Known about the structure:
Blueprint: H1 6-10, H2 14-26, E1 31-38, E2 41-47, H3 62-70, E3 74-76, E4 94-102, E5 105-114, H4 122-139, H5 148-160, H6 165-180, E6 184-190, E7 196-202, H7 206-210, H8 214-223, E8 230-232, H9 243-247, E9 252-260, E10 263-272, H10 280-310, H11 321-338, E11 343-350, H12 353-360, H13 362-378, E12 385-388, E13 393-399, H14 403-418, E14 424-430, H15 436-452, E15 458-461
Parallel strand pairs: 14-15
Antiparallel strand pairs: 1-2, 1-5, 3-4, 4-5, 6-7, 6-10, 8-9, 9-10, 11-13, 11-14, 12-13
Amino acid sequence: xxILFPRCSAARNIADACEGLVDDLWEHGGLPSIYFLVDGxxxxxxxxxxxxxxxxxxxxxxxxGQVVATGESVIINDLSETPHFIAAIPGLNAEAxxxxxxxxxxxxxxNVESDSALPANITDLLPAAAALLGSSIEAAGGLPPVPLxxxxxxxxxxxxxxxxxxxIRARAVEGAIELxxxxxxxxxxxxxxxxxxxxxxxxxxAETLKCWTHEDHRVIASWVKAGxxxxxxxxxxxxxxxxxxxxADVRAxxxxxxxxGGRVTGLLTTADVRPxxxxxxxxxxxxxLAAQTAASLATAAAxxxxxxxxxxxxxxxxxxxxxxxxxxQAAADVATRNQATDTACLLIDxxxxxxxxxxxxxxxxxxxxxxxxxxxxxxxxxxxxxxxIGGDEFAxxxxxxxxxxxxxxxxxxLDAARxxxxxxxxxxxxxxxxxxxxxxxxxxxSLYEAKAxxxxxxxxxxxxxxxxxxxxx
Length: 473
């Protein structure tokens, strides 16, 4: 009896089976190739007839990626009608692809392309090839594991793409579990006052790890203060002073210091309820993960600080004009979605501020602005915000449902200014969700009406799309 794929059938390992199968398929015509799903991407294992090979398909991308994602084989006789086709070389006309499965799970695909017509027996040939390759993989015990270095590289690359601190912590903990094969992991960092706590944890021991106290963390940090890692394989008795490990039901523990500029800024910990032998390669991978995590967190913190400064007034510490504009637009968007307006816009101008600067000097004017900023903020509720939008100009976005509430907020702001021996004029209006710019013009007009009426007072307006030219200062 003739064997359909003799080279593949005679192979003793998966790599030889792939090479043998493309040789066998090559004799039937077309350009054969084999892809396996490796660490989230489709990797070419063998190919014949190509001078260029496309590699690294995400599942769902291209014909091969779609076959792996769906598990459904395809035969395409005219690739010009296939928009998701990805050409490895020019001139290809047809493609056939069959999914390779092991124990009911798709692990890859066998593919044949042609610059003319596919082999006449492709309908029977390709499924048989995929089935034989799947059997070879199953007989070998499955696909080989992804190398530790490759998994580490993938995790590190994913960390470098993140800029949110919470996301970086979560990805690092997830990666530590994957690399260590322990069941749980946590990331701990000190607060500004030096107190340690777990910032993120995952796995069956997560809640227990979160219960470790500042003193527990001080003990753990002492193990790695020189920049070394520390591993408790769990085969010996827990010594005195380490009883918190028993409280946490931890038998095996590995701790990697997160170091920036020679200073330990955090701890990346992996834990298990079972003993876990020390593995130098795994420890080295976790050390690199901890180092990249520390660097990514430092970068994210720097980006956050730059973003904060870009929206902060340096004199008063309040948000600035750019933040006010952004927040008013965001409030308008929320109001549009909810079909309800519950935000008031209040503009505030310090009365006779130029006289303060001229009479007492700019340092005195700066002190007045800082004191006024503190008092204005003290009058606001939790979700309300005060901004410094100009030299002696402030703004407030506050929760309010009607003109009566808007007027009450304005009166509180007037009282706040009087506490620092100053007076202000206030123009206020409920936010118009369809046009926040016009809302600001309306509040500005009301502000100048308050000034014209004698200052140290507020004017509350209804939004009006007419007569919105600002009054002269």
